[in-house]
Structure formats: structure tokens, C-alpha cells
Amino acid sequence: MLDIFDRIKENPGPLGQFADYGEGYFIFPRLEGPIGPRMQFQGREVIFWSANDYLGMCNHPEVLEADAKAAAEFGMFYPMGARAMSGETEQHLQLERELADFVQKESAYLLNFGYQGMVSTIDALVGRNDVIVYDVDSHACIVDGVRLHAGKRFTYRHNDIASLEKNLERATKVAEENGGGILVITEGVFGMRGQQGKLKEICELKSKYQFRLLVDDAHGFGTLGETGAGAGEEQGCQDQIDVYFSTFAKSMAGFGAFIAGDKEIIRYLKFNLRSQIFAKSLTMPMVIGGLKRLQLLRTRPEIKAKLWENTNKLQSGLKERGFNIGDTNTCVTPVMMQGSPVEATLLVKDLRENYGIFTSVVAYPVIPKGMILLRLIPTASHTDSEINETLAAFEAIHDKLVGGHYKDQEQKLLAEQGLSFKEI
Ligand SMILES: Cc1ncc(COP(=O)(O)O)c(C=O)c1O
Fold first, then answer.
1. 4-54+302-417 in CATH: which number?
2. Which residue minimizes the CA distance to atom 3 of ligand 1?
3. Hey, how many other C-beta atoms are within 10 angstroms of the C-beta on 162?
4. Options 3.40.640.10, 3.10.180.10, 3.40.50.170, 3.50.50.60; which CATH number does 59-299 get?
5. CATH 3.40.640.10 domain residues, the chain
6. Is the CB of 87 inside a 6 Å radius of any atom of ligand 1?
7. Residue whose CA is closest, atom 10 of ligand 1?
8. Ligand 1: does its nearest atom lie under 6 Å from the Cβ of 113?
9. Aminotransferase class I/classII large domain: from which residue to which, for each copy (predicted)?
10. Beta pairing, strands 31-32 & 38-41
């Protein structure tokens, strides 16, 4: 019989295999100083493009004050119980009312974390006779929620409406045979490459197929739409989204999340979400701090306008310099280049250590082999000079990449130090 620890030691997993090479640097990098467009990394200042702090709320003085006041009044962890047992407060209910209003839904319910909340929402919405149809590039929280489903599930090709329709036909047959229904799940914004989910086109399919739509709008909430209500508002179909979901981990610069929709459905979810029924309530500083953040989202449209001004400068600057930023139509800014995983690490090291630019880097298997993807998240706090410095640095490292600089370094490293990089 196998000892499961032996298996684990032999196969540390898709990320674990990089632990010896990159921990603390490429993966689990340790940044210091207050969150902002300039942070400290490995003893030097870097321009930081890797925080999902779109609206610069993390260090907004009014937010800091509200959080601190709430913590001083209630302590960090009030209330001490699950919502259903002893953790419900008037402030929780108020935040839910205000969130529902903000995303143009009847009702909302708070979740402790986005990831767990989404897993549980999917679990609570479907029964074994129902069919789930979801975008193949969905976030892990959707994939893991679907894993709990005891019934049929189909994926459709990423943002491909013809593929969705084909799968809706299959799903309709299965659901009719089983006496179940269909739940379609997509993201409002795909966080890695920045495309909006084609919500409008998905909603149009409702006239032909019977299904309910659940949208994870983690990156759309606060950044898209006239009022910041997200990708559905941006595309003019917010009212067609049956269950709207967002985390507080991005525009709200906090933690926690929420779902919103029709009163009756949210009430059902309130009484059936296992991630909430069996877990401690979202704490008071986050709830009161959440009210302050939401107030800023509502009353300071200039913050979102500045985010978009910065996004447009960064994205047009990259495009003018010939960079491939794919088909992003959101603030998420991917920069795609060709190179091996070792070249990617050397390039990122160069960018951080010699140009003082910190971005996230994504490698195979998240993206195809041979591709390097650097992801930049512009925020309302970045300045013109930070954007210009970054563009100049990108130009320089790209010249080095195509000139074979990192390839030469790779060969040298492999030869001199016997360094190996396990190809996956
Ligand atoms: C699209 C998407 N959904 C869900 C989550 C999970 O949210 P949380 O960090 O609140 O668990 C994230 C990451 O924050 C995300 O990017």
C-alpha cells in the first residue's frame, strides 16, 4: 500500500515544484511597506503593479479611519458566532441593503470569503438533477464549486457563444430527461487576460433556452459600468443576471464578498449557504469599513475616472510600443511575450532588480507553453511618471528578450551552475 506522504514527496504539485527555485521571489514574494504604487521588494523600491487595489482604497485616509474606529469600538473579531447563531447585527443588514442597491438588485447577502462563498453558492443553487454549464476558463472558486455538484456539468469554450449554445442544447436534453434545470456560470471579467464575459450575448440566449445565470464579477465590481455596478451594467444587462457575486478583495480593498439577486432567492441562499451557516460571521471592522468603502464608491466617481485614465494611458502606451495586450476591455492589463519559462524568470528578475518594476508573472500551465504573461493591475493611485517609467522599462526588457539576452543567460546558467528547471 502507498503512504500518501511518499506520493506527496514525489510529486509536490504544479506550483510546489517551483518552491525551491522561486519561493519568496516569484511565488509568495515578500513585499514590504504600505500597499501602494511604490513598495519595497528585496531591499529596493519597486513600482508595484500587482495589487488588486483598483480604487486605491487600501490606504485611503477615510477608509483607514473607519476601519480603526470600528476595531477600537468592537475589537477585531466581533461578533463571536455564525450569522445564524449569534453573528447577525444591524450593520451586517445595512451593508447588505446598500450593496443590493449599488448593484441594482433587490437583496444581497454577505459572504466571509469570495472563494468559499462561490463554492457554497453553486452547491446551494443546484440539485443532482440540475445541469451546470460554465466557461472553461473560470476561476478556481467556480471550478471547485462545480466539483461538488453531483449532477451533470458541461464546459463551453472560453467566451465562445456558439460553444455555449451547443452545450445548452445538450444540457437542455439532460435537464428535461432528469426533470432538472440549468445553471450557467461565467465571470464578468476574466482576471488573467482581462476580457469581459459576454454577458449580453449570454443573456440573449435566455429567449431560446431556459437557464439561470450566475456571474462572478470580482474584477468588474467598482471598475465597470456607469455607477460601478460592474460588467452587467457596462453591457446593459445587469437585470438579466440572476445571481450576482463579487468579492471585497479588489475594488473594496478588504476581505469578504457578497451575492445579490431577487429577494426570494437570496433569502433561500441565506438559509442554505453552508460556508455561512457553519462559519463565523464577517467581522465588524470589515462590515463597518465596507460601508465606508461603498460610500466612497457611490459618492466619489472621480476615483473610478482616475483609474480609467491610468488604465488607458498604460494600455495605449503598451500598444503604441508594439506590445501584445490581447483583447482586454477592462483594467486588467496582460502583456504577452514569447519565451521559455527560464527566460521568463530572468526577464522578471531583470525587471524587478534593474528597472524597479514589480508585476505578476504567469507561466504554463495557466497559459500555453512558450508564452510569458506579465499582468499589470493599474490603480487610481498610480502617477503619470510611474506609468512612463514602466513603459520605458518594458521597452528595454523586450529589446533584450528579442535580442536573445535572456536566452544567452539561460544557457550560461544551465551550463555553469547545473541549474535545471523541470519542464511541465
Ligand atoms: C474572479 C475571482 N473570484 C473569486 C475570488 C475569490 O475571492 P476571495 O479572495 O474573496 O476569496 C477571486 C480572488 O480574489 C477572483 O479573482
1. 3.90.1150.10
2. 218
3. 9
4. 3.40.640.10
5. 59-299
6. no
7. 114
8. yes
9. 45-393
10. antiparallel
Cα separation, 130 vs 148, in Å, equals 13
More confident residue, 391 or 415: 391
Q: Which residue has the CA at smallest separation from atom 7 of ligand 1?
A: 114
8 A C-beta contact, residue 227 and residue 213: no
Protein residue with least CA distance to atom 15, ligand 1: 218
Region(s) of the chain under CATH 3.90.1150.10: 4-54+302-417
What's the confidence (pLDDT) of residue 16? 72
Give yes or no for residue 261 CB within 6 A of ligand 1: no
As to burial, measured by CB atoms within 10 angstroms (0-12 exposed, 13-18 middle, 19+ buried), residue 134 is buried
pLDDT score at 362 = 84
pLDDT at site 57: 96
pLDDT at 282: 96
Query: How far, in Å, is the centroid of ligand 1 from the Cα of 114?
Result: 5
Question: pLDDT tens digits for 378-401?
Answer: 999 999 999 999 999 999 999 999
- pLDDT attached to residue 423: 43
